[in-house]
Structures are given as structure tokens and as C-alpha cells.
Design a protein that fits this description.
Layout lengths: L1 H55 L7 H5 L12 H7 L3 E6 L5 E7 L6 E6 L8 H12 L3 E5 L18 H15 L4 E7 L1 H10 L7 E7 L5 H11 L8 H13 L8 H4 L7 E6 L10 H7 L5 E6 L7 H4 L1 H15 L1
Parallel strand pairs: 3-4, 3-5, 5-6, 6-7, 7-8
Antiparallel strand pairs: 1-2, 2-4
């Protein structure tokens, strides 16, 4: 009986120990899983907040040197030096945006001309180097030129970049100023990269008849698609759920979501003639965005120009002869 009882005790002990081992194994697995889930969620949230701040938030006030195109060594790039300095000789214009920001830009008057170029620069291009040469060329063609600092850039106020969402209304404000000044004004919009997206989104607004045509250079089809491309292509990060959370953060913090607005949707309402320019080697705003944008454009008169071998925002430099022949022909026809 004692032997039998001892054996039962030993068996019970073994069962208990086995049960404890299984319990610890199971609990350890769940603890490990819980830790992994917590770390994953924390990582996604951290990356999302970082991405929103990194992409949209204005980091620090911009110095005058940055605004006028000075490099870190204090010198202007020779390629843009004359054009940037020329642009800085223009009259300083100011306006208050619909949401209360003080926006600034330069206006260069060209004699008695009634034609006006409104030039929109690209993302984080405080110095407007991506449009300065084009602006000077437009002036040489006989047009008045206005180049504004987008909100969150250069001399304009704003703690963040709107990626074309809010900027469309800012451009509409500059258009109104020109028309109030010159009721006979004939205006065309020109933009590069984010500026290209901005003029496309502006085209869907209720614009006065004074706006005669639009020229966009390598603009993206939508904020969402551009960020999808950047996350996967540049940073190697999966779109979901990071960008979904970025959208929520952005909407809560800045009042707009990446899916709320797009050049592709706005351009479906465009009525003015539209010239699209894109480089076939553009990997930043990918070349494949051109076709859906072009197809979506509701304008009766539209044309796409492909610059062979050109990377992002380099169309002007890669093939200036083709670039300007197409633009000048477009302006002769529709301005």
C-alpha cells in the first residue's frame, strides 16, 4: 500500500511538474507574443509620428541665405545664381491665407505686359531654385512673373507643408490679387514637382477666365500615391499600416488626410488647356503617374511631353530645346 501510494505520489508529482512546465511554456509563448505585439505597435506608432513630422513639419525658421539660394559655403550655384538673384529684385508681395497665414513672394513687372506667369516651386525648395531659371525665361519672353513661397517654406508662414492641399487656395489668392490689379490680365500657372501638383489641384478650383492655361512639370497624381511610392521605394517600409496611421495623425494634427485630396481628382474638373511634362527616368515622382493624370484631365486641350533620359525635376536641364519649344508653342496658342 505504501509502495502504491508512493507511486501515485510520484505520478502526481510528475503530472504537476509536467503541468507546470506546460503552463510556463504556454505562458512564456503568450508573453513573448504579447511583447512582440506591443513592440510592433510601438514601432508602427513611432515610425508614423516620425514620418508625419519628417515629411510635413517645418523644422526651423529659414535664414535669408536659404531663401535666396545660398549654399552651405555661402555661394550660389552658378547654374541658378543669376536667376535667383534676379528674382530677388522683384517687388515683395504679401497676402493672408484663408486660414490666417502671412504668405510672401516676389513679383517682377515686365513693362506694360498683361500676361502673367505664376510659378510654384517644389517640396522643401525654400530657395525656389527649381523654378528660378524658368521664371527668368518667362520674363525674357515678355511676361510678368510672380513666384511665391509656399506655406511652410521660405518667407511664408506655416508650420507644415500642405503638399498642394491647402496651397491650391493660396494660389487662387495670388490669382485674385493679379486680376484685381489688372482686370485684363492673361495668366498661366507653372509648377515643378510639388508645384506641379499644386497647379493641378488649383485647376479644379473655380478660377476666373483670366487663367488661360496650365503647365505642370513632374507633379504627382496624389499625396497618398506619392507617399506610398516613397515609403516602399526609398525607405523600404510597408505601406500598411504605417501610412494609414500617418493619415490619421496628419488629419488630426493638420486638418487633412493623404486621401482627402488629389491632383488626379481635381484635374477631372479642369477647363483650361493643360501641358504635362515628365521625365521617363523620374524615380522620385515616378514616370508611371503621368498617364493616369493625363487621362483624367477633363480639359479639351491637353498635351503630354516626355523628356527622354530625364530624372526628377531635371527636364529643363536635360533637354532645354524640347522643353522650351513645347512650352513656348503652348503659350503662343493658349495665352
Amino acid at each position: 500500500m505504501k509502495t502504491y501510494s508512493t507511486r501515485l505520489h510520484m505520478i502526481a508529482t510528475y503530472i504537476l511538474l509536467l503541468g507546470l512546465a506546460v503552463w510556463f511554456i504556454i505562458m512564456g509563448w503568450w508573453i513573448a507574443l504579447a511583447i512582440e505585439v506591443v513592440l510592433y505597435i510601438a514601432g508602427v506608432v513611432g515610425i508614423s509620428f516620425f514620418m508625419v513630422s519628417f515629411i510635413l513639419k517645418r523644422k526651423t525658421p529659414v535664414s535669408l541665405g536659404d531663401v535666396i539660394g545660398l549654399s552651405e559655403g555661402g555661394e550660389l550655384s552658378e547654374y541658378v545664381k543669376d536667376a535667383v538673384e534676379w528674382l530677388e529684385t522683384g517687388e515683395l508681395w504679401e497676402q493672408t491665407s484663408e486660414d490666417g497665414l502671412k504668405l510672401q513672394g516676389r513679383f517682377v513687372k515686365n513693362g506694360d505686359s498683361h500676361t502673367y506667369a505664376i510659378c510654384c516651386h517644389g517640396y522643401k525648395n525654400h530657395r525656389m531654385q527649381d523654378i528660378s531659371n524658368q521664371a527668368k525665361h518667362f520674363y525674357d519672353l515678355g511676361h510678368n512673373v510672380f513666384a511665391g513661397h509656399a506655406r511652410g517654406h521660405g518667407r511664408s508662414e506655416g508650420d507644415y507643408v500642405g503638399m498642394g492641399y491647402f496651397e491650391r487656395r493660396d494660389v487662387a489668392g495670388w490669382i485674385k490679387r493679379i486680376v484685381d490689379m489688372d482686370p485684363d490680365a492673361r495668366i498661366f500657372l507653372f509648377g515643378v514637382s510639388m508645384g506641379g501638383a499644386t497647379v493641378m489641384t488649383t485647376s479644379g478650383e473655380d478660377l476666373p477666365a483670366n487663367v488661360k492655361c496650365v503647365i505642370e512639370d513632374c507633379g504627382y497624381s496624389s499625396i497618398w500615391k506619392e507617399f506610398c511610392h516613397q515609403l516602399t521605394g526609398t525607405y523600404g517600409i510597408h505601406v500598411h499600416p504605417v501610412l494609414d496611421l500617418c493619415q490619421i495623425i496628419c488629419k488630426s494634427r493638420y486638418g487633412f488626410g493623404f486621401k482627402d485630396h488629389s491632383a488626379l481628382e481635381q484635374i477631372k474638373k479642369a477647363k483650361v488647356p493643360f501641358l504635362f511634362i515628365h521625365g521617363d527616368k523620374d524615380n522620385f515622382v515616378p514616370f508611371f503617374m503621368l498617364e493616369p493624370i493625363y487621362n483624367a484631365c477633363a480639359s479639351e486641350h491637353k498635351k503630354k511631353v516626355i523628356i527622354k533620359g530625364s530624372a526628377h525635376a531635371e527636364n529643363y536641364y536635360t533637354d532645354p530645346k524640347l522643353y522650351w519649344s513645347e512650352i513656348e508653342d503652348w503659350l503662343d496658342r493658349y495665352l
